[in-house]
Design goal:
Largest sheet: 5 strands, antiparallel
Strand content: 15-25%
Strand order of the largest sheet: 2-1-5-4-3
Number of strands: 10
Distance between the termini: 19 Å
């Protein structure tokens, strides 16, 4: 027995010496997480990585969704503004057609050319027919608020009861009349007719804008003018129908700087004075969308020209209104990320706690055995590998 014991002892000592020798030909790979010396700590850190990735995924998903929604909203608003501009284009085409029909009417042209000046009865009869036909054409839709037709010869045909007489000579010499003379037989759209208002005593508050066309003789020389006033309600209706949300402003702006807005006059924001608007009308683009600051806040500005009329539809939408549509997505994303974090954290905590408990129990038993107490027993809960390790350790102690 002594000899056997000595041999075994020598083998054990030799084995220990061999284990202490460092292997040659390379370094051992050793996973070392600085500052973490426990398996549980390393396990928790390994769970932190996917948790961080979940957070990053949530942020990226939100930003992607936000970019897509904002882009779709911008495209939708651009289409809305362009469709509104097209509607105004159709409205003005209709008005131009009506104005042309009145101007080229044979009875009207004959009257203002003085064809019936030697036949007073026929002239009077024709004048009544002119008024009847003109008013029928002008007021066939809901757009026209009033109409003027007057010239060098004859009486003025006016739908306003408070206007009895108009002087074409004085009108033709005014700035507005000079501009009309240069238009020949073309249609002119304008926001104001101040020189005409000076004769009638009317104000621009009584109409939104006007459509004008010369009455000409056989050589296409202007001998009179037709002016159609457009109703303010008709001009504002398309702007009000857009209803883009709180804080938005929509406006129709004429070539001579008149702005018709969906807001009350005291709250009206002037697009005409904005550099962005001036740059747009000076350019060749038919529509434009861009973000700009106004009074310290970011707005989406949208511009669209109404054909060749010189009118422009303008809109400004607060960026805060656009991003407010993302609150539901932001809330859902945050909730999902928090739930994922809680699930991952709880899973890591439960697994780590179970491993930590098993390791502590087995370590405690091993320590008792190292101190010479072989009567201890191993108790490990669960059905995993730590349970098997505890059972094997218990079997080893029992056999020992």
């Amino acid at each position: 027995m002594k000899i056997s014991w000595g041999l075994n002892k020598q083998k054990i000592v030799k084995s220990k010496k061999l284990n202490k020798e460092k292997p040659k030909g390379g370094k051992k790979f050793k996973l070392n997480i600085k500052g973490v010396n426990t398996i549980v700590g390393k396990l928790i850190i390994s769970y932190v990585v996917p948790i961080i990735l979940i957070v990053v995924l949530g942020i990226i998903s939100y930003r992607k969704a936000a970019d897509t929604i904002i882009a779709n909203y911008e495209n939708s608003m651009e289409n809305t503004i362009q469709k509104t501009a097209e509607y105004y284009g159709l409205m003005m085409d209709t008005l131009a057609t009506n104005c042309n029909q009145i101007a080229i009417d044979n009875t009207l042209q004959s009257y203002y050319r003085g064809v019936y000046k030697n036949d007073p009865l026929q002239e009077k009869k024709n004048f009544q027919e002119i008024k009847k036909s003109m008013f029928k054409n002008a007021f066939s839709g809901d757009f026209v608020n009033g109409i003027y037709a007057f010239g060098e010869y004859g009486s003025a045909s006016v739908s306003y009861s408070d206007v009895k007489k108009l002087e074409y000579g004085a009108y033709a010499e005014s700035e507005e009349g000079t501009q009309m003379t240069g238009m020949k037989e073309n249609i002119l759209y304008a926001g104001y007719h101040n020189d005409l208002d000076a004769q009638t005593g009317h104000t621009s508050d009584e109409y939104a804008f006007c459509v004008k066309r010369n009455i000409t003789n056989k050589s296409a020389k202007p001998i009179g003018v037709i002016v159609m006033d457009i109703s303010m309600d008709a001009a504002k209706e398309p702007l009000l129908q857009m209803d883009l949300g709180e804080g938005t402003t929509c406006a129709l702006i004429s070539s001579d700087g008149r702005q018709i807005s969906d807001l009350e006059e005291e709250n009206e924001i002037s697009f005409v004075t904005m550099e962005a608007y001036q740059n747009f009308i000076a350019g060749e683009e038919s529509s434009k969308a861009d973000y700009m600051k106004y009074n310290g806040k970011n707005y989406l500005f949208l511009f669209s020209k109404v054909g060749d009329t010189g009118f422009t539809v303008c809109t400004m939408i607060p960026r805060a209104l656009i991003t407010s549509r993302l609150k539901d997505i932001q809330t859902a994303t945050v909730i999902i990320v928090i739930i994922a974090l809680l699930i991952s954290g709880c899973t890591a905590a439960v697994i780590s706690a179970g491993m930590n408990s098993s390791i502590k129990n087995i370590s405690k038993v091993m320590k008792s055995v190292a101190e010479g107490d072989l009567t201890v027993s191993v108790h490990v809960k669960g059905k995993d590998e730590f349970k098997k390790l505890g059972d094997h350790a218990g079997d080893m102690l029992a056999n020992t």
